[in-house]
Prior knowledge:
By secondary structure, this protein is of the alpha/beta class. It is 35% helix and 22% strand. The strands form six sheets. Strands 1, 2, 3, 4, 5, 6 and 19 form a seven-stranded mixed β-sheet that branches. A five-stranded parallel β-sheet has the order 8-15-9-10-11. Flavin-adenine dinucleotide binds next to helix 1, helix 2, strand 4, helix 4 and helix 5.
Amino acid sequence: MESVINFLVIGAGPAGMSAAIEIAKAGEKVTLLEDALTIGGPVYRRNLKISKKDHNPGREKIRANQLFEELAKYSQYIQVIESATVLGIWNNKEVLYTVDGRSEIVYPKQIIIANGAFERPMPFPGWTLPGVVNAGGIKTFINTMQVRPGFRAIVSGTGPMLINVANRIHETGVEVIAVLDAGNPEMYSPQFLEKNKAFAFAQSIAEDLNELHQNGIPLLLNHSIFEAQGQVEVTGILYGPVDPISWKPIKEKAIFDDADLVVLGFGYIPDNAFSILANCQQVYRDGLGWCVVRDSFMQTTVPGILAVGDCADIGGMYIAEWEGKIAGIKALENLGLIDSDLSAARMSHPLEELKNLQDYREVLISTLSVKNGIWDLMQDNTLVCRCEEVSLSALKNAVDKGAKDLQAVKLYTRLGMGPCQGRNCAPTASMYMCHQYDISPTEVGRINPRPPVRSVTLGALAGIANPQK
Ligand SMILES: Cc1cc2nc3c(=O)[nH]c(=O)nc-3n(C[C@H](O)[C@H](O)[C@H](O)COP(=O)(O)OP(=O)(O)OC[C@H]3O[C@@H](n4cnc5c(N)ncnc54)[C@H](O)[C@@H]3O)c2cc1C
């Protein structure tokens, strides 16, 4: 590939695919890099085998197929590279990625970051046992690997994604004991669903609730997993009610059940590694954490770098697509390939759709925001950082010795020094420190990513194909 290109999109979920399609529609070439074996992101991943019911192929599959068809239609303009992992961005516009055991450096004039979010880890006793899986992992099990993930499951977390996942698991033949939502989301209420019935997201939630009912799976509000038990893998669970306001577990009411699968979905954290590396300004947002600052056209504070979808702001698959479209059009305008009038005309519909979904986004984010009482699930020996095996007591010990920010905690304990570079443990440690020790999120700070953001072999790095600009 040429090293200087006009457009690069990082991540081929709904946001990245939509951005690339908009650029291609103008007859311009764009490169779309996807870390996974296949494009689509966790919801639209190819080989999607959603439902056994022929009459209901699944809205995710229908929407995914529409996007795949559009990608295919414009394939002469869109270079899709799967299994291509972006490792870092330097000097604002130098992008390193690895594919097929070698590395490449490209210098795109416009970069659209669309690498999604990661699922919020929820530490509790037994959370590192095999059999405890995040909802995204379960979707991969089912959709891509077509594997039945277990026999008897509990689904725990917060928000409407839980009910969708529970139904998908049920279809594979797993017995789902219950869905435990730590909150009591407004999104499940008949009033909310009636008010928003014209929107696809509300139709989805209503369908999922109905299906859950038909499947005979109870939905227990203000409930959570407390503990996963087992010697080498999950063989039993404790779960029970939480305080409706603080989400503090009411442990004396814990219930035991047999289970071999615990599926977690405690919301998402935007993956801002690339926007941080590119020096884009970040802001702390309650309930989400550090997020990249953007204008209404998805542009970050660094010219020529745009960020869309869940990597910037959690919004679900519909919002991700609209944002991708807006960014694609803006990137074309930035290079003068379409004039501002055409850009405004093409953008007006996506902007309008996004505006209409703003209330939904706010409700979604508040639904997915965990309340501080939930940290009481952890015991002193519960691991906060699983890469470096740092327990809650080690974290407390570091803070008691004077470590008031994450960098200091990292030096005291090794928290965040493992292969995930703090992606998994820093959000928990940060929220715990703010809550328990009354420190502000800005003071606690963050653990900054460093390239390579993912593990890579020396051989792949040594084979850099285009070291010169
Ligand atoms: C289990 C589950 C169920 C969900 N159910 C729903 C639902 O019912 N309704 C709904 O609206 N939303 C749902 N969501 C949320 C939805 O998946 C996201 O909101 C949406 O996919 C965001 O789109 P995106 O394009 O921003 O990110 P993603 O879809 O996450 O795509 C990001 C892509 O970037 C790739 N990537 C990441 N890092 C790199 C890298 N370093 N180099 C190259 N590529 C990289 C990833 O592999 C991924 O394909 C669900 C999510 C999960 C996990």
